[in-house]
Input
Amino acid sequence: MIDVHNITKRYGHHTAIDHVTFSVAKGEVLAFLGPNGAGKTTTMRILTCFMPATEGHARVAGFDCTDQPLEVKRQIGYLPETPPVYQELTVTEYLTFVGRLRGMTGQNLTAGLDQAIGKLELGSVRHRLIGNLSRGYRQRVGLAQALLHDPPVLILDEPTVGLDPKQIIEIRELIKSLAGSHSVILSTHILPEATAVCQRVVIINKGRIVAEDTPEQLSARLRQSEKVSITLKTVPPDCDMKLRAIPGILNVLPGQAGGSFLLECELGRDLRDEIARLVVSSNWGLLELRTISMTLEDVFLQLTRHEDHLAEPTEAMVGASAERTDA
Amino acid sequence: MTPVQAVIAKELRGYFVSPIVYVVGAVFLLIFGLLSYLYVGFAGAQAIQLMQMQGGVAQINLNDLVFRNLFASVRIVLLIILPILTMRLFAEERKLRTFEFLLTSPIRITDIIIGKFVSVLLIYLGLLGFTVLVPTVLMLFSDFDWNPIWTGYLGMVLLGALFLSVGVFASALTENQIVAAFVSFGMLLTIWLIAGLGSLFGDTTAGHIISYVSYMEHYDHLVRGLIDTSDLVYFGSGLVLMLFLTHRVVESTRWK
Output
């Protein structure tokens, strides 16, 4: 449905995106993940024909973004970073205007309008001026605008920004419900969002795609070792050495709290039993023992911060991961 | 409703919910009324003077004494107020980040520009409509030739449309409305002053060419009751040129 082939965008000497290639199948939801300035918005702007790529080509629903922009724009519902709303119009007036721009008329327009207002629960504010609405409502009006003409392709730039937790969950449910019938690309900083909503994740950093896979596969692929966290009541000076002596333990790192350690074990081996036996037999007082799995957040940090050292997880990263699992 | 009509309707709505139209309209009509009153007053004073000198009822020409002066003065008023009407058209879209939305909607840039231009032109025509009250009232008390009045109105429509197209262009250049208004004001004043430059060259080819660029001479012809195709071509081509340049500016933002 969306086919991006080798696109590059340069602003003078600055390369915003560098030979980016990916595709989205019909009915698939793809997350675009990356730090600020990674090139997410630029990629979306090229796909929506707001700006042309310097090199390469992008196709949406079979239409070329450079040669057939009007056809491409008809296939797309786009929510930019800032909800594109006119403050002097009411919600209904605004959506009517949007529908007319997209060539909707009469019954078609009224039905689309009612549906979008219903889906985003805007019924109570439909006759209010957008200028008087809160940030969350404006964001929802922006989303309603993107969904109005029921386009086969949706491009959403940070769709849940400015919403309260309840609304975030509702919008995620809404996006999930669109999967299957719509192809969706959404960009986000919020990693659990990508895990919750998307079938596939593209991680982009400094204009390049650094990883592309399902959230589960990504964490599996990047996991270099099994990790076990333990917390001890008493910490004798030789415990570090004794722990390292267990066959299969690769590394012992001090954890965040006093008495806690992070043990890296060989991939595919569960050493919890051996560790527990050692701790108990040495009488160190076992307070806690658990395995740590790598969250998408860790993958993301590793890929965007430590691209060059993929093989060596750093302490900062391990610390972050332990912290998160605690929470 | 076509997309262009949708843009026109939305812009008109935007104008009427903001105070701009009311303020600009009130000021324009106030000044127009004041100018009319002054020129009618002068004409009256002149008539009395003539009666005293010649005796009997003096025949004064309202076309010359009132309308020509009125239409000539209106240029300055239009020069100042029309940039205020046009300044928001594109600058506001940029400021509020709706510009990206417009450019990613399935509507051609030409249609967006035409929609915006037509909407502000309609507002201006509406304002001009109110001013027809002045000759209508004068008609009740005196006798004058309506033909130069119609051509004068044609002149005001064409001159206003040209000014508005310059304003639309200036608005597309920036996201700051004040800057947009000031740029169009500056451009219009410069084109005005070019007329003076032309007269410096006198009756030479260069002088004629330079004078042709300014709208002064062309507007003057219409105010005097002359309809010359070259004047119509001037206004038409100027307007198309400005809207074309607007198109280029809007298009170029996609490449930045």
Remarks:
- Chain A has twelve helices and 14 strands.
- Residues 176 and 259 of chain A are 43 Å apart (CA to CA).
